[in-house]
Amino acid sequence: MLELIRLATALDVPIDHLLQRRPAVISRRSEVIAEDNDTDVARRSQRLEITLASWLRDVRQLLDAGTLTLVRPVQYEGSVTSDEDARAAARWLRDVRGIGTEPIDTLMDFCERSGQYVLISDLPGEGASMVDGDLAVSVVSLEGDPGRRRATAAHELGHLVLGDEYSSDLAVHVSRADRESLINAFAAELLLPIAAFGDVTSRPASREDLIRFTARYRTSWSLAVRQAECA
Asked: Can you give the pTM of this predicted structure?
C-alpha cells in the first residue's frame, strides 16, 4: 500500500486508478498520438483518460447513492457510411429531443438526456469519452473558445450515438480519420442544422447571416461556414 501511495503521488493519479480495471471503450478528440508515448500529446491524452476514469467512478457513486438517475445511452440504429448519413443521425436525435432546428441551449443537459454525463475540466487537450456497460461519460477541456468546446462535446456525443470502432461496425471499411470525419459531420449538424439557414438557402449566405447564425447557435465561425456551404 505504501508503494501504491508513492506511485500515485509520483504519477499524480488517484490510488483507485491503479487498482481498478479501465473500461475498454475510449474515444478521443485530440491530436494524433505517436508510437512514442513520451510526448506532450500523449501525456495530455493520458491525463484526460485518467480524469475520465475518475469521473466514471464518481458518476457510478452518485447513481449508487440515488443522487443521480441513470439515463441509458441513446444509439442510432441506422447505417452511417457517409457524411449525409451522419447528418441524418443528428437530425434524428434532434427530433427525439423535440427541438427541431432550434438552438441547443445547454449542451451538457442535452448530452445527459441522451445518456452521456459530461465533465468540464481545466486539463489541457480537447475531449475524451468512454462507455462502461450502461453508463457513458465524457470529459471536455476548458481550453479553447466556447464554440470549440461545444463542438468537442457534440463530437464525443457523436461517438456515443453513432458508435465507433470499439463498439460497433460504424464505417468499419474506412480509416480512423474518415470515421472522425463522420463524427464531425454529425456534431456540426447537431449544433447548427443545415435546415436552419431556411430563407438564405436560395442565395449565398452573407457575412451578416453567418454572424447571426454563429451567435444564435453559439458555434465557431468555421463550423457555421462549413454548414452554410452544405446548405
From this structure: 0.82
